[in-house]
Design brief:
Layout (H helix, E strand, L loop, with lengths): L1 E8 L18 H17 L4 E10 L7 H14 L7 E6 L6 H9 L4 E7 L3 H6 L6 H13 L5 E7 L6 H14 L3 E6 L7 H7 L7 H17 L3 E4 L2 E3 L6 H7 L5 E3 L4 E4 L2 E5 L3 H9 L5 E6 L2 H12 L6 E2 L7 H9 L3 E4 L2 E4 L1 H5 L1 H5 L4
Parallel strand pairs: 1-2, 1-9, 2-3, 3-4, 4-5, 5-6
Antiparallel strand pairs: 6-8, 7-8, 10-11, 11-12, 13-15, 14-15
Helix pairs in contact: 1-2, 1-10, 2-3, 6-8
């Protein structure tokens, strides 16, 4: 049985200039066709899925209206066996949170929200093209708490042009005052096919690696002092609040992705659905497969991916599993990037700053 389910909801009220995920603006008829197709696709997999975790990602899943959510959630309950469900996460944009929507989601069994605040500095929010301001984010967090959510995550971004160390510290401190159970702090990346990538190429934006390193170090220091474990390079949680769904990815566990552009890895197969909502909906509703890419995943590839992700986590990887890569790991040890603890390779603090470089050992 497949225990981890990802559902991609591609609609966004606004296209952020740094985001490379597949997304599009919503039209009522397009959304309805998408919901019908998504429920049909879930029905096709119902006999092979008994989820421990479900994750609604996007796009902006919370852009759906209350009636649209009602249709989607009722449809999933009717088609899937949710008897073993432990964690059901939804990504939410603060601009799309309302009391009615929050209550509906909570009553339907969603028990974890990841809210994309990104910054508590209104000028930085403007740079990022966000549709909310700090006051709206504060209001939305309160609405979610009042609706009964006791597992909330706040997403923040550092390394944003114009973002000083003081501004970043202020965003961290404001987040801590709200006492979320989980915090994600991501360094800004300039992904192809984004406006930021084009501006970088034109020389209109220039990353400051030294400042980003200082912001990363400050994050580790402040959150660690406040009781949050850095259980993965970009993710911090209070005890017992690690994301079960994301941890499954990092451990190389099978997962199923539904919706346009969603990836799946099951057994020795990996595939991706069509990156076009209209074609995805039409194809699925006609009973055909929406897959547009498929590959064989060898045990060797799965092992190297599992080690690359595992190296980014607090636990690191076992010496035994990493045997074939001992030589480059010894070199990383000599350079102070990794160390050996309890028969496991783990990143040092210096290594956390260069985690992508270390992970490339296994790729």
């Amino acid at each position: 049985m497949i225990e981890h389910l990802y559902i991609h909801i591609p609609f966004c009220p606004n296209i952020c200039p740094y985001c490379a995920f597949y997304k599009e603006s919503a039209g009522r008829e397009r959304v309805e066709a998408f919901l019908d197709a998504l429920l049909k696709e879930s029905e096709q997999w119902a006999q092979r899925v008994r989820p421990r975790t479900i994750f609604f990602g996007g796009g902006t899943p919370s852009a759906l209206s209350v009636p649209q959510f009602d249709k989607l959630l009722a449809g999933l309950h009717a088609r899937l066996d949710l008897g073993k469900l432990e964690e059901w996460t939804i990504e939410m944009n603060p601009a799309t949170v309302s009391p009615e929507k929050a209550r509906l989601l909570r009553d339907a069994g969603i028990n974890r929200v990841s809210m994309g605040v990104q910054s508590w500095d209104n000028e930085i929010l403007k740079t990022l093209g966000r549709t909310h301001d700090a006051a709206k984010a504060m209001e939305s967090f309160g609405i979610l708490r009042e609706a009964g959510f006791d597992n909330l995550s706040i997403d923040l971004i550092f390394g944003v042009p114009g973002q000083s160390l003081r501004s970043w510290q202020s965003s961290l401190e404001q987040s801590l005052r709200l006492a979320p159970e989980h915090l994600s702090a991501y360094g800004l990346t300039y992904e192809e096919d984004t406006d930021f990538f084009k501006r970088l190429g034109r020389g209109e934006m220039t990353p400051n690696e030294g400042l980003e390193a200082d912001q990363f170090e400050l994050t580790h220091e402040l959150l660690g002092y406040s009781g949050y474990r850095q259980y993965e390079i970009s993710n911090y949680a209070l005890e017992g609040r690690d994301s079960i769904h994301n941890t499954a990815y990092w451990e190389g566990t099978d997962y199923l992705g539904l919706g346009p552009s969603a990836f799946s890895t099951v057994g020795s197969k990996r595939w991706r659905n069509i990156r076009d909502t209209g074609i995805y909906s039409e194809t699925t509703l006609h009973g055909k497969t929406a897959v547009d890419f498929e590959e064989e995943v060898t045990e060797s590839l799965k092992s190297s991916e599992r080690l690359a992700f595992g190296m980014r986590t607090l636990r690191g990887i076992s010496i035994q599993d990493a045997g074939p890569w001992e030589s480059p790991l010894r070199e990383a040890l000599d350079n102070g990037l990794v160390e050996i603890s309890s028969e496991r390779w783990v990143l040092t603090q210096k290594g956390r700053l260069l985690a992508d470089n270390v992970a490339e050992i296994f790729v």
